[in-house]
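Whiteboard transcription, Tuesday session. T.W. wrote the C-alpha cells on the left side:
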C-alpha cells in the first residue's frame, strides 16, 4: 500500500522557549499540540489519532487522557526509537490515515532536560555487556568521527563547516539557542569533549518541544493552508550484529534513505532542502554520504566551503539552525526536522534562508547511538 500523496501535514508548532522552568512536561505537550491545531485551523474535537515517543510521560494512555483525547481516539501509536521517533511517525501517521484508522492525527514532543530531573532509561539486553564501559554520546560519536578520519582522511576543519552552516542560518532565527555565527577556527579551537569532537561539534541541550498535525488530502484542502504532501517514509534498525561486520562509518540511513527515495519516485537531485538529523557534526556528514548526495568518504569535501548554506551552497540544510544551534528538545531532534521542512515547503522560512521554489524536502532521523545501535528514519515531503 502506497502512502504517496495520500496524507498531508496540515499544522505545525514549535515551542518558542529553550528553557521552561515554570511549565510541566504535561503542559508543554498540551501547548505544542494546541499550537499545531491552531496553525491547521482544527480543534481538539477533530483529533482521532495520537502519536508519541518515549518523552510523553506515562505513554499514550496517560498523555491522551491529560490532553482530553481518550474518548475520541480511534488509533494511537507509541513507537519509540529515540530522536528518530517523530520522523518515523510521519510514515506511521500516513499509513494510519490511508488505512482509515484515523482522519486527523496529532504527534507531540516535549521535555525539560535542563530544569527537571533526568528520567532513567530502562536498560536493554546489552547492559551486561556494555554498561561497564560507561559510554556517553560524545565519546561514542567520537568513535565514528575518528574512524571516518582514519578511513577517508576527513578533517576536523571539514566537520566544522557543518557547524558554520548551521550558525549562519541560526542568526536569522530569534528563538535559536545559539545565534552567533561561528567560523571554522572557532569550532576547531573550542573545548575538546571527546577527541576528535569539540564542543561546537555537539548539539545544544534545550527544553520545549513541538507538534504536527497530519490529515487526509480532502480535509487539508478545506483548511486553506499550503498543502504539504507526504510522498514516502522508510525506516531501518542498525546494530552491532553480534560484532560481525560492524561499520562505524555507515548509518542506517544507507538503507532507509534510498528506500524513501525509491518509494517517492525521486532522486537526490530532486531534493531542494534537507532537514538532516544533527546530534553531532559527524552525524550529518555520514548521513549525507549514506543518502547518496556524495560517495562514501567524500562527505568532508561535500560540506566544506559553505556547501550547506542556503543561498550559497548546493544543498541547503537545517535552515532554522538545527540541533547544532537552534533546538534539540529533550535530546530528540527529529520533531524539529519535520517542522522546518514544512516551513520551507510552505515558503514560511525566514526570507534570508528560504529556498527558492522549494518543492521537495528530505527529513532524516537517527535515534539511539550512531556507533552502537540506532533507528534510522527518512521521509520525503512535497509542496502540494
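and on the right, the sequence the group agreed on:
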Amino acid at each position: 500500500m502506497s502512502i504517496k500523496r495520500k496524507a498531508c501535514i496540515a499544522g505545525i508548532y514549535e515551542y518558542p522557549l529553550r528553557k521552561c522552568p515554570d511549565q510541566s512536561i504535561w503542559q508543554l505537550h498540551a501547548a505544542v499540540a494546541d499550537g499545531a491545531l491552531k496553525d491547521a485551523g482544527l480543534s481538539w474535537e477533530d483529533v482521532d489519532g495520537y502519536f508519541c515517543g518515549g518523552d510523553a510521560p506515562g505513554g499514550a494512555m496517560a498523555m491522551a487522557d491529560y490532553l482530553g483525547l481518550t474518548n475520541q481516539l480511534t488509533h494511537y501509536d507509541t513507537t519509540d526509537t529515540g530522536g528518530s521517533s517523530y520522523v518515523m511517525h510521519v510514515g506511521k501517521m500516513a499509513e494510519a490515515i490511508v488505512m482509515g484508522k484515523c482522519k486527523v492525527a496529532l504527534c507531540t514532543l516535549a521535555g525539560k532536560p535542563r530544569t527537571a530531573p533526568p528520567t532513567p532509561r530502562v536498560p536493554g539486553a546489552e547492559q551486561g555487556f556494555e554498561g561497564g564501559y560507561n559510554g556517553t554520546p560524545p565519546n561514542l560519536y567520537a568513535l565514528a568521527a575518528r574512524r571516518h578520519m582514519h578511513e577517508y582522511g576527513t578533517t576536523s576543519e571539514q566537520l566544522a563547516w557543518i557547524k558554520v552552516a548551521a550558525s549562519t542560518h541560526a542568526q536569522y532565527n530569534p528563538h535559536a539557542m545559539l545565534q552567533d555565527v561561528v567560523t571554522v577556527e572557532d569550532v576547531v579551537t573550542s573545548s575538546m569533549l571527546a577527541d576528535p569532537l569539540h564542543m561546537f561539534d555537539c548539539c545544544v541541550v534545550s527544553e520545549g518541544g513541538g507538534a504536527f498535525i497530519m490529515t487526509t488530502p480532502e480535509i487539508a484542502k478545506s483548511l486553506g493552508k499550503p498543502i504539504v504532501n507526504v510522498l514516502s517514509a522508510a525506516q531501518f534498525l542498525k546494530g552491532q550484529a553480534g560484532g560481525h561486520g560492524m561499520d562505524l562509518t555507515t548509518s542506517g540511513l544507507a538503507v532507509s534513505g534510498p528506500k524513501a527515495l525509491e518509494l517517492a519516485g525521486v532522486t537526490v537531485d530532486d531534493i531542494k532542502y534537507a532537514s538532516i538529523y544533527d546530534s553531532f557534526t559527524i552525524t550529518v556528514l555520514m548521513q549525507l554520504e549514506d543518502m547518496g548526495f556524495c560517495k562514501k568518504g567524500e562527505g568532508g569535501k561535500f560540506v566544506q566551503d559553505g556547501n550547506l548554506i542556503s543561498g550559497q551552497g548546493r544543498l541547503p540544510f537545517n535552515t532554522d539552525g538545527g540541533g547544532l544551534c537552534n533546538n534539540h528538545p529533550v535530546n530528540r531532534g527529529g520533531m524539529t526536522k519535520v517542522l522546518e521542512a514544512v516551513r520551507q515547503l510552505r515558503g514560511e522560512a525566514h526570507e534570508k534562508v528560504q529556498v527558492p521554489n522549494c518543492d521537495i524536502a528530505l527529513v532524516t532521523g537517527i535515534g539511539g547511538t550512531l556507533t552502537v545501535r540506532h533507528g534510522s528514519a527518512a521521509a520525503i515531503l512535497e509542496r502540494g
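Someone added at the bottom: The mean pLDDT is 96.
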